[in-house]
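Before any further analysis, backbone shapes were mapped to integers, which produced the following:

***
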Amino acid sequence: MDDRLDRHAPAAALSDLPRLGASGLVDQVVASLRRSEPRAHYHVARPTLVPVEPAAYTLVVGAGFSAGVVPMVRELMQQTIGGYYFVGDMEGTASDRSPSWLRRRSGEFWREFNAAAHRLHGCDAVALRSRDGQPLDCAAAYRTLFQFDIATEMFRTRPEDRPQRRRPRHGSLRAAVDGGDSPGADAELGRDFVQGFLEYIVAPGIEHGSGFTGRTKLNPAHRELARLLEAQQDGRAFRCRPFCRNIFTTNFDTLLQVALQQVGIVPCVTDRPERGIDTTLFEREAAIHLVYTHGSILRRNPASTARELAGLADANLAALAQVLGERDAIVVGHSGWHDSLTRALAACGPGRHHLWWCDTRPEPNVDVLRLHAERGGAMTYVALGDAGADGLMRALSDALLGPTLAGTVKAPASRSPA
């Protein structure tokens, strides 16, 4: 959920950060992957296998890469939270309800949230629009929600004092509110409610206790990346240098894994950042490697508070800087706010590797400009426009592989010996 900052730097036009369009980046990537000599092939006369050729790029993806299938912060704060908090007269998930119902319920949630903030701190925690109770700054509301203390205060009210239509959807939380009277039981209510919200976002229906499947609907960016990587890893129809094998993501969802598995790729996964990042896993490059820098919903370890994110950044800065500094990096869908990845990219410095920062905004925001200044150069801002990550990945895979009908993914190629 890292589309938290939606402000532009007022001095953006004066920045020396170079600009480029999506087609310009595609041309750059295609040119850099062209081979200057034929690719080596295995032959029975050779004493060893052909070494795996290192990929040219590292890919970093944020929430914007999943646009269209996972709600962005504005929708989460103005609609989804209402469907999560209020059961109402309907069962199902937020997608089963009308946008107007969700907005109305979200406004009621934020008014109750501020009432709890008054009890706890004596003032509002989130600035709201007077007409509908919606947050004026959705990014700030998101950060405040994930501090847990105000959410906990909301559920300290005695159950008999709470209107029956206002019931928490999260199973363990509902039990705690309805009958939990053990000492200290309410201390975890806020954390349970908010972390349950994350699960509700990436796995709609999980609150009914039927198990976890995650979201399975993919957008064109997921499908085209999978198509490109399947051809790269198979090798026989891929005439260029390898594009990418290491993918770092701030997202908690499983969509990248689903996309890769649909084309027959089983990735290596690093998803326990709280235990550190083992750089030796990157020394022998062969498999596609997914790195969840903020944790994964499958591990139930998503880092969301400022303290948790800062802790991960401190613990993993050196390892991330080492791995990210080994080759050019392409960042897609990350707002640029300070986390472990942006700190590591800043620590890499200009060196000999370049950073391509891709966003839908026509101009970089203040955080991207700050990162450029901290790196000292070797960075280009790529304005993707309305096509976003979907358009970029489709154009890139078409340029390297040829277009597909309606942007669909090819079936996995057989890997049996020719």
Summary: Confidence is low (pLDDT under 50) at residues 1-14, 158-184, 405-418. The two ends are 45 Å apart (CA to CA). The CA atoms of residues 200 and 206 lie 6 Å apart.
